[in-house]
Design goal:
With 306 residues, the protein is an alpha/beta fold. The protein contains 11 helices and 8 strands. Helix 1 crosses helix 2, helix 5 crosses helix 6 and helix 7 packs parallel to helix 8. It is elongated, with a radius of gyration of 28 Å.
């Protein structure tokens, strides 16, 4: 038995059976100094509660990542103590995931009331003509339904996602909160450090609940239906040039424009996109044709008028 358990037995013998402390310690084989010892450890109730809250909101974060978050909040605690509390509370990550995991109740998410207040971000995948897979990082504004960027690549890491957000920060600013899932790219250290440096809040959805990020799921569905499924991609560069597509099913979104790596839209194109509904008629690596309500205009690859 551990010393703490032996202390409980000695207390039972001395109080319940009226046995002397000396005889009880002799029977249980514990030193009297150990029996009388009072722990001088600090009260860990507050860090335990905060560590449990962090583990509930960041389900794929280990004790090291949780220790970094505690330091950012001003807690004075080293990684060894965080590891001990992490193990004592049974918060260690499961190496083998179960098929079904109970999810906590997620409160109502505040509705965005202005542009750049809340964004949503996710991935969508497709394949080239030779079967090679590629991914597209999609971002959408929950208020305007505008997609500020779509990044295409074979492998998009958290560091590359941070580079895309840095580019958006330079072009037209960032939102105050970005809703993401628990994918490895979004829970990576690179994206977490970027969010901390830029004062951005990453709102993680519940595991296995894509409906918590309904805006980006709806956008990805239309993006796949009206762009990915309608185009045949010969190469990765061809896939990048065909990212611009219309959302013409049911409801149109005014000013829908997608910017990505290698495409620069000048003020003339941006002004045209902001004044009326439109859809893309022709997409190629050199130019694209846009049909507005009252006119049809063509733009070159760099955004200049054709």
């Amino acid at each position: 038995m551990k010393p703490a358990q032996k202390q409980l037995v000695v207390d039972f013998l001395t109080t319940g059976l009226q046995v002397s402390e000396r005889r009880a310690c002799h029977l249980i084989r514990i030193a009297r100094s150990t029996q009388r010892y009072q722990s001088q450890a600090r009260d860990d109730t507050a860090p335990r509660i905060r560590l449990k809250d962090l583990a509930a909101s960041r389900v794929r974060y280990g004790y090291r990542r949780s220790h970094v978050l505690l330091l950012r909040e001003g807690w004075v605690v080293n990684h060894k103590k965080v590891y001990r509390l992490y193990r004592e509370m049974g918060l260690s990550l499961r190496l083998k995931r179960s098929k079904k995991r109970p999810s906590q109740v997620r409160g109502l998410v505040p509705v965005a009331r202005c542009p750049n207040e809340r964004w949503s971000m996710d991935f969508v995948s497709d394949s080239l003509h030779d079967g090679r897979r590629f991914r597209a990082l999609t971002i959408v504004d929950n208020f305007t339904r505008v997609s500020p960027a779509i990044e295409v690549g074979v492998s998009i890491t958290g560091k590359r996602a941070a580079m895309v957000l840095d580019r958006l920060k330079t072009l037209h600013g960032l939102s105050t909160m970005i809703t993401v899932d628990h994918g490895p790219e979004f829970t990576s250290r690179a994206l977490d450090e970027w969010a901390y440096r830029n004062g951005e809040e990453l709102d993680f959805t519940r595991p296995g609940k894509p409906t918590d990020n309904a805006y980006i799921e709806s956008f990805n569905g239309k993006f796949r239906l009206e762009c990915l499924n309608q185009n045949w991609f010969a190469s990765l560069q061809d896939a990048q040039s065909k990212q611009l597509c219309s959302l013409s099913s049911g409801k149109r979104f005014p000013g829908f424009i997608v910017a990505h790596h290698g495409v620069e839209c000048d003020q003339q194109l941006s002004h045209a996109c902001d004044h009326g509904d439109f859809e893309f008629l022709v997409l190629s690596s050199q130019f694209f044709i846009m049909r507005f309500d009252d006119r049809i205009e063509a733009f070159s690859r760099k955004g200049s008028h054709v």
